[in-house]
Amino acid sequence: MTQLLSLIVPFYNEEEAIGLFAAAVPPVLEAIPDMAWEIICVDDGSRDATLSRLLALAAAEPRIRVVELSRNFGKEAALTAGLEAARGDAVIPFDADLQDPPALIPVMVAAWRDGAEVVLGRRSDRSTDGAMKRGTASLFYKFNRYISNIELPENVGDFRLMDKVVVEALKRLPERQRFMKGLFAWLGFKTVVVDYTRTPRAAGKSKFSGFKLWNFALEGFTSFSTTPLKIWTYLGATGALAALLYAVFIILRTLIVGNSVPGYASIFVAVTFFGSVQLISIGVLGEYIGRIYVETKQRPVYLVRKFHNF
Ligand code: UDP
Ligand code: MG
Predict the structure, then answer these.
(1) Considering 67, 152, 199, 247, which has the largest number of Cβ atoms within 10 A of its Cβ?
(2) Which residues does 99 contact at the CB level (< 8 Å), separation at least 6?
(3) In sequence order, what E strands does the chain have?
(4) Please, are residues 70 and 38 in contact by the beta-carbon 8 Å criterion?
C-alpha cells in the first residue's frame, strides 16, 4: 500500500534558496519506495520573488502545493498553516534553506515504518551556528529545564517526522501563540532520535536576529511555565523577613544605645532595591497578562489568501 508523505516548508524571502531547494528535495522524495509525496510550501508574506517562483514550481509539478498567507505571520504560524493543510500519513516540517539535510528524510521514514510515531532530527554538531547563538541556546535549555515541567530535548529544532496521529493531536492544541518546540514536546508519543550535522544555509540570510530570539526564548518560558510568576511570593517573603529582622535589630539598638539618626545610605539602598524588585515583578506579570490578552482575542493564527494545487 502506498503511503503519503507531506513535507511542510515555510518560505519567507527565500528567492535565493528556492532553486536549490527545488533541485535537491523532490528527487529524494521520489526515491523513497512505496511512498507518494506532497510538498506544502507556505509563503509567509514574502516581499521578494519567492511567491512567483513557488507558483512557477507549482505550475510544473502538481505535488508541489502552495499556501499563500495574507502577510508575514512568522515561522510558527506558517508551520501551523502547513500542518493544517497537510494530508500525509507522515508529516515533516522542513527549512527552505536546506539546513535540514534532505538525505535524512528516508532515514526518518525508515524509523517511522519501524514503529516510531515521532522521529526527531537532532543536531549533533552546531558549529555552523556561531558561538553566541550556541551559548545562548544552551543557556535557554538549562534555564528552561529549571522552571518548566516539560523537558525540551536539546539541539532539536522543528525538523522531525510526525505520524498522522501526532499531527491530529497537535491540531487540537488551541493556543494562538504557538511555541512549536514546546508544543511538540508536550505531546509525547513514541519517539526515536536520529542525529545529523546542521549544514550552513544554502543561500540567503537567517531571519532570526538577536532580539527576535530573545522574544522567542521568553515565549518558551511563559508558554510552559508559571514559575516566573510564583517566585515573587518567595522573594517577597524573604525580603519581608530580612526587613523584620532588621527592624528588631534597630529597635533593640535604640533601646540599648539610644538614637543617633544615621542610616541615610541604608534607607536609600532599601528603597531603590525594593522599588526595582517590584518593577521587575510587575514586568513579569505584564508578560503573562499580555499573553492572556492575546489568547482571549481568539484571532486566527494565520490568514490564507489562496491555496494552489489543493
Ligand atoms: N521563516 C518564515 N517566516 C519568518 C521567518 C522565517 O517562514 O518570519 C522560514 C524561513 O524562510 C526558513 C525557516 O523559517 O525556511 C527558518 O528560518 P531561518 O533559516 O532564517 O532560521 P535559522 O535557520 O537561522 O534559525
Ligand atoms: Mg536556516
Answers:
(1) 67
(2) 128, 198, 199, 200, 201, 202
(3) 3-11, 35-43, 64-69, 90-93, 118-125, 156-163, 191-197, 304-308
(4) no
Mean pLDDT of the chain: 86
Q: Report d(CA 237, CA 218) in Å as an integer.
A: 25
pLDDT at 126 over 70: no
Ligand index nearest the alpha carbon of residue 17: 1
Q: How far from chain centre, in Å, is Cα 116?
A: 23
H or E, element range at 2: none
- pTM > 0.85: yes or no: no
Give phi and psi for 67, each to the nearest 5: -105, 120
The pLDDT assigned to 156 comes to 82
- Ligand whose nearest atom lies closest to the CA of 50: 1
For the chain, how far is it from start to end, CA to CA, in angstroms?
23
Residues 169 and 92: their CA atoms lie apart, in Å, by: 15
Q: Could you tell me the three cell numbers for 101? A: 539535510
Question: pLDDT, tens digit, for every residue of 294-310?
Answer: 888 888 989 999 999 88
- 159 burial level (CB within 10 Å; 0-12, 13-18, 19+): buried
Determine which residue's CA is closest to atom 23 belonging to ligand 1: 206
User: Could you tell me the distance, in angstroms and rounded to a whole number, from the CA of residue 195 to the centre of ligand 2?
Assistant: 17
Q: Which three cell numbers stand for residue 154?
A: 536539546
Contact (CB, 8 A) for 93 and 8: yes
Are 66 and 87 contacting, i.e. CB atoms less than 8 angstroms apart? Answer: no
What DSSP character marks residue 263?
-
